[in-house]
Amino acid sequence: MGILDKFFGSDKEYQIQLEKEKEEFEKRELEKQRIEKEKEEFEEWKLEKEKLEEDKKLENLKEIEFHSVGRDKTLEKDHNWKFNRLKFLNDLKKEYSNHELRLSLSDLNSKVKGGVFDRPTNWYLLRNDLTNSTKKISTFEFGFGGDDEGVIFFKDHEVCLFLGRTDWNYFDWDSDDFQGRENNFKNVEIRSFFEKCKSLYISQYTQWKEKTLEKLGEEEKEINDYKTEIFKNLDKDGNGLVDITEGNDLSILLKKHQNKIININRDYLKNLVKISYFLKTKKNNIQSIFSSIREISDKDLLHEYVKTLEDDIHSYNLVLFNSLNMVVSLVEDEMITFYEIYEMFDNLNLFDSKHQKDISENLKNIGYNLNNLIQEIQIMSDRITNTIQDLSYVTEQSNQQLSSQLDEINSSVKVGNFINSIQTYQLYKINKQTKGLTK
């Protein structure tokens, strides 16, 4: 074996060595390729993950057309919806206080001015619109934007959106145009910011709407409870009809004694029939007013209307009681009592029932003004009460005579109870007026 053979080994051994080294080299190459492939796959996975996170972020702040919130223009007008722009801005500033795209006034000035050799950006192209209006720059509140697009808020409730070299628009913050604006920003952060603006506005509006509706619900319950309390004195059985003394007794009594009254004076019968008609019309009007005021939701107004209705019922009772006594005194030949009542009715124009007929016609008219009508009724009720509330002519004998006459026609009216109800209400009114004077 030569020296070279000793150093390199035999050809066979040499070939084996080469094959072994080649195999190891290929393994290293394959490992290297595997590592490179894993790196590429990792980078792809990382990019995919970032994209998914961005998509998820946008999904969480997905664009919502503002009308989907259910804006109620009537509710806004009636209950003074007012957008709290200060809270809106503070929430935005807090959310994006450290964000790299947040803009200060100096950032805005820097962007719109640009440098001499700088590439003209969209901000730079926007500068004529902004710098020509000193007011706009001086009223800057908050901004958020990148190199070519952004959102700027001004103190005069105006917001500027721009997405390109010629696409910039100004909106009122509290407008459907702004809230329903399509989100076409290219930068995902600005798109996210714009959706955040919408979501903050929507959240503020929704909270206001929910609180307002909740308050209205509480007020409705309160007014319904109040209605139940005050109406139970007018409609004890809850059948929707006012508990009022039946006035047909006068008509029945007149039919019973019409011949005798005609023999005394035919005109007396005619005028008493007019009183009977007056009472029937007044009773129907009382029921119509009662039905109308049941729909009132204003507590103070309802209290006032119920008070007027109670006064009107009292005046009805006074007219009915006096008219019944008028008939009885006429047939019993108690002419002084008859003439006293007759003169009171004549002074009140009760023999002319035009006033009650006018009220009836107004109640049938869809466009009638209930408040004006209530005032007219109150005036007439006060006149009747002030004129015929004096029942000094009533004696035990006159009560017995009236009771006897009503019993003969099977009337449900109990004279004693009827007088007590009239006097009780009169006392209630006197006490109320006295308390008012002492306050």
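[next item in queue]
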Amino acid sequence: MKRLVVVAAVVGLIAVGAFILGPSGGGSSNLAAQPTASPTTEDDLLGQWRAVGELEEQLDNAGLSGRSMIVSFSQSDEKFEWESADGCNSVAGRFEVSADDEFSTSPATQTDMHCPSAERDVVTVPEVVEEATQVRLVDGQLRLYKEDSLLATFERLEATATPTTPTLPPTHPGTTATAPRQSESTPIPLSTSSWKPGDAAMAALFKGRIQLSQDGCVYLQGSRGVKFDAIWPADYSADVSADGVLTLRNPAGEPVGHEGTKISVGGGVSEDEGGIPDRTLRLLVCQVSDSAVLYINDELPPL
């Protein structure tokens, strides 16, 4: 099992040891003993799944909760991706389900936070996902196996309504598409700082795409799918139109990005050995990642 470790713009390669986790979630631990069902596909896995049974108990005893008990499967540009957290770092990669419910993942990427509290002797959800070689849906539960032995069991979290992929209205000859008017949109919470153009600024260059999580959190997705919580400049705002278009706006109300917009901005990362500092957490109105937070100290140009 290999992971690519992401530190700002630096990407490295590390190896993580293998493991075997005993039966979890009740029922037989042998894949052959499970009732025959229709073949599992990547589409069947899409959504969020929470660990139950033995893995849930082990994680809970180790003080891990929240995102550390959840694995998310999604699709982006015809590629199937998974994401989870190990109690310190966010881990993400691609996955595939082939014939006979065979499950495989590509080398994953992860953030490189050093959290002493995360040095626990416990199998994590990312490790389970990367070790799995087979998958099956049984009575609504997701079961991951390695060589026919059950690794862990997950239950699907209730789906929430998500905005559709943003599209601008079609254009006619001689006209230009524009974002929906703010008066027709619903404001959503946005993490902002007191930084304004002209203030002292961190100038590290960051490139990523503006994204919107299922629970309405605006974040940036960097290279290889790694997610970063973002703290935007002062007086920036965001809203979602009736047809699901996310719009990020500058203090003048001008649109500077939509979901999927690729941006290059100056800024800096807030982190320390204990994780995200409290002074930074107080600025976050929502959170999609347990990794470092990106302060944006740059002015985004209007679209």
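[queue empty]
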